[in-house]
Amino acid sequence: MVRAGRGSGGGGDGRTRVKAARRPEVRLPGLAEFEGGGLEPDGDYDCLEFREVDLGGQDGSGARFMDCALKGCVLDGAGLGHARFLDSVLSAPRGVGTDLSEATLRDVELRDARLGGVQLHGAALERVLVRGGKIDYLNLRGARLRDVVFENCVLVEPDFGGATLERVAFPGCVLKGADLTGATLTDVDLREAAALDIARGVDRLAGAVIGTGQLLDLAPVLAGALGIRVED
Prior knowledge:
Blueprint: E1 32-33, E2 44-46, E3 48-51, E4 64-66, E5 69-71, E6 84-91, E7 94-96, E8 104-116, E9 124-136, E10 144-151, E11 154-156, E12 164-169, E13 174-179, E14 184-189, E15 195-200, E16 208-209, H1 212-225
């Protein structure tokens, strides 16, 4: 069932209201400048600022970043599978093919990213804000997203196949060619998306809330998914 409505709390009009996502509240302490030569597998990074560091091709798999700021870093081909980003801010990262498979992001802000082919399949995202920027071919297959907000960003062909989304919102976000195949949605708010284009898995929109105009835009795709032939 696709729900359409307004508001995020209870009400007396008989409609079920979508629960709003909880945004992260990241307050970084004083940070020391990162002076290491590169990342290390299973490394521990606490209260550090990575400023315009080229992390391309480095292996930081299983590393833990706590209370860190990564500003303008290059992440081309960086290996960060199973890494943990906690209470951290990533500002203006750029790169292609960053591996964050099965990573954990909790209480994280990702700002003005310019990324392509990011591998976040099997990852766990909780209280994450993705604000601004553009991410091409974001792979979130099988990921778990809870309290995640994509705000004023562009997502080109994001893959949510088999993912679980709970309290996820897309205000001002442009979604192009999204894949929801096999996804499970609960309290997913798409009403304020600047553009909503679902290439596959439109039948998985149960648990989402959309606006009336969006419903009309999606009508041809919905009809096709339901096997309805529309003729004048």
